[in-house]
Every structure is written in structure tokens, then in C-alpha cells.
Amino acid sequence: GEDVEQSLFLSVREGDSSVINCTYTDSSSTYLYWYKQEPGAGLQLLTYIFSNMDMKQDQRLTVLLNKKDKHLSLRIADTQTGDSAIYFCAEWAGGYQKVTFGTGTKLQVIP
Amino acid sequence: SAVISQKPSRDICQRGTSLTIQCQVDSQVTMMFWYRQQPGQSLTLIATANQGSEATYESGFVIDKFPISRPNLTFSTLTVSNMSPEDSSIYLCSVEEVRENNYGYTFGSGTRLTVV
């Protein structure tokens, strides 16, 4: 089956930038998503990118996609303590294909 | 985006019993999904529930263990039957919706199940 990999843990200081990386194997991925899961909560869609895009910026969030290398990243500028959560990347090829989630990256923001 | 109410938010259950989780959406949606998130793990799709038809289960999940109802376009239930400690997980429902002409998936807040 398709595979989505992420590093398990990232620690940054408040005010610094965070970069969370994700690699995937499905070359037919059409949509790539970033979700945030705070402790005890469900998943919140942060942003998404089409596979025909290289970059998408949304306020403090920047998504970079390298389709050749099947590499996706999420950059959070000016990271705040409220950004501490688990971040999941996910890919979807569209149609009746199921969404495949990564293993999640736990972001710890140090005050 | 759609608002999903999922309940119960958490429960502690005895092994051998069953728990039914409810998922209510504030708008009509065609496809609803049920996921399991085991401790420290990513999300695994259990089944897809379309209104008016049998749910479609993923490999490793069966209807007898996880019966699903989808009586209308805004509601679904997932039952975890004959529970064992291995069923201790977070269960999430999700809907597919169109956002800015693209597809995205919205999730409920999850049901944290502990089986003792």
C-alpha cells in the first residue's frame, strides 16, 4: 500500500520557525494535506496543496511540495506555544482512493 | 466547513461489552468515514459509510466487530462490539467536503475509548 512518513518529534523555541517534513510514495497523489491534532482533540485541517503547485502560503504557514522527490513540508513562522500539537500530513489520489495519513510529528514549543 | 459533533468524547468500558459512537454533522454529506487511532499511532480507516448502502470496510475490519449505521445524510454510528483491551483507541468520524472548489476532510473531536 501507499506510505507516508514523517519524523516523530520536533522541538523549537518560541518565536523560531518550525519545519515539519513528510515523504510519500504515491505518485498519483492529487491533494496533500496538513492536519493539526491538539491533545485530546480531533484533527483540524490546517492547509492543503494541489500536486500541481510548488508552494502555498497562508498567514504563518508555508507549504512546499517537491513532487519529483515526493517531499512535502510545512513551515510555521514565529512558532507559538499554542502551536504545540501533533501534525499529520496526508495524501489523497482522488476519486474512491482512501486518504493515507502519515505517522504524525509531535511539535514541542519551548517558551 | 462542516461541524461534526461526536459522542461520547470518552468512555471506559468493560471487556466483552459494546459501545456505540455517534457522529452528527450540521450539513448533509454523502460520504462519512470512521477512523481508528491507536495510542501513539497514525489514523487507520475502518470503513466508509454512504447513506442507503452497506458500509465498505477496509482490510482487517469486519462488520460483525464494527457495525455501522448511516440512516440519513447527517448522522452515522459506529459500534465497537465485544470489546477487548486491544480496542482501546481514539475513534474519529470524518466527512468529505468541498472547500474552495477542492476536497478536504473534516474530523470530529474523537471518542477516546479505554477497555479494561
Question: Secondary structure elements and their pairing?
Answer:
The complex is a heterodimer of chains A (111) and B (116).
Chain A: E1 4-6, E2 9-13, E3 18-24, E4 31-37, E5 43-50, E6 55-58, E7 61-66, E8 71-76, E9 85-92, E10 100-101, E11 105-110
Parallel strand pairs in A: 2-11
Antiparallel strand pairs in A: 1-3, 3-8, 4-5, 4-9, 6-7, 7-8, 9-10, 9-11
Chain B: E1 4-7, E2 10-13, E3 19-25, E4 31-37, E5 43-50, E6 56-57, E7 68-72, E8 75-80, E9 89-99, E10 102-107, E11 111-115
Parallel strand pairs in B: 2-11
Antiparallel strand pairs in B: 1-3, 3-8, 4-5, 4-9, 5-6, 7-8, 9-10, 9-11
Architecture overview:
Chain A has about 110 residues and is mostly beta strands. Chain A has strands spanning about 5, 10-15, 20-25, 30-35, 45-50, 55-60, 60-65, 70-75, 85-90, 100, 105-110. Chain A is about 0% helix and about 55% strand. In chain A, the strands form two sheets. In chain A, strands 2, 4, 5, 9, 10 and 11 form a six-stranded mixed β-sheet that branches. Chain A has a five-stranded antiparallel β-sheet with strand order 1-3-8-7-6, with no helix packed on it. Chain A starts with a strand and ends with a strand. In chain A, about 35% of the residues are buried. Chain B is mostly beta strands. Chain B has strands spanning about 5, 10-15, 20-25, 30-35, 45-50, 55, 70, 75-80, 90-100, 100-105, 110-115. Chain B is globular. The interface between A and B is medium-sized, with 21 and 21 residues.
* Average pLDDT reading of chain A: 91
- Rg of chain B over CA atoms, rounded to whole Å, is 14 Å
Number of helices of chain B: 0
Radius of gyration of chain A: 13 Å
Task: State the helix count of chain A.
Answer: 0
Shape of chain B: globular
Mean pLDDT of chain B: 91
Helix content of chain B: under 10%
Q: Could you say which structural class the secondary elements and strand pairing of chain A correspond to?
A: mainly beta
As an assembly, this protein is: heterodimer
